[in-house]
Write a structure and sequence with these properties.
The complex is a heterodimer. Chain A is an all-beta fold. Chain A has strands at 4-7, 10-12, 19-25, 33-38, 45-49, 53-54, 62-67, 70-75, 85-90, 98-99, 103-106. In chain A, the strands form 2 sheets. In chain A, strands 2, 4, 5, 6, 9, 10 and 11 form a 7-stranded mixed sheet that branches. Chain A has a 4-stranded antiparallel sheet with strand order 1-3-8-7, with no helix packed on it. Chain B is mostly beta strands. Chain B starts with a strand and ends with a strand. The chains are: A mainly beta, B mainly beta.
């Protein structure tokens, strides 16, 4: 099973700052990695798929990069509504897919 | 606009079967080969976990760790798909989500709001 490790576990920043979240895979997943945002009491929301493609309706301040085992989600200028938990998900061995343990982005 | 809604009991006793239904509105499960339909769950305080996926043709895929206990089925006439998880234990307590997964992205782009299922006697 491919294990995804996200870092840091918690990231404390202020609105207007730049956020950089990391996801590392235990083996190569090519570019088959997605990022989700989850707020308390809500379902996950797809942000990025295939490492760098923004999902429909996602603001341009969200960007993804990486390939192989190392991936990054960048939020260029934090808005108040961006403070949430972020998960990465790999689908390199679809239909199997696994999620990371999450990074909490807090003010 | 596509909407998904989970329904089913909020509490199940140990060793019994957890049964949930996902009703899809604003789109037809059977009308497009472009999507999978999936079930995920999220234990308290943890990340999401994939349970299994259903293709419109009826083909199903399950996580190996759950395969012996899981069945996902579809009712095209009712435009819903269902999850049955047998022989549950406390470890199956989680929020259960249904979702749509486009084949092009293979990432879930529409989710239901989720339903908490507690396994307890």
């Amino acid at each position: 099973e491919i294990v995804l490790t996200q870092s840091p576990a918690t990231l404390s920043l202020s609105p207007g700052e730049r956020a950089t979240l990391s996801c590392r895979a235990s083996q190569s997943v090519s570019r088959y990695l997605a990022w989700y945002q989850q707020k308390p009491g809500q379902a996950p929301r797809l942000l990025i798929y295939d490492a760098s493609n923004r999902a429909t309706g996602i603001p341009a301040r969200f960007s993804g990069s990486g390939s192989g085992t190392d991936f990054t989600l960048t939020i260029s200028r934090l808005e108040p509504e961006d403070f949430a938990v972020y998960y990465c998900q790999q689908r390199s061995n679809w239909p199997r897919n696994t999620f990371g343990q999450g990074t909490k982005l807090e003010i | 606009q596509l909407q998904l809604q989970e329904s089913g009991p909020g509490r199940v006793k140990p060793s019994e079967t957890l049964s949930l239904t996902c009703t899809v509105s604003g789109g037809s499960i059977s009308s497009s080969s472009s999507y999978y339909w999936a079930w995920f769950r999220q234990p308290p305080g943890k990340g999401p976990e994939w349970i299994g996926s259903l293709f419109y043709s009826g083909t199903t895929y399950y996580d190996p760790s759950l395969r012996s206990r899981v069945t996902i089925s579809v009712d095209m006439s009712e435009n819903h798909f269902s999850l049955n998880l047998r022989s549950v234990s406390a470890a199956d307590t989680a929020v259960y989500y249904c979702a749509r997964v486009p084949r092009v992205a293979v990432a879930a782009d529409h989710w239901g709001p989720g339903t908490l299922v507690t396994v307890s006697s």
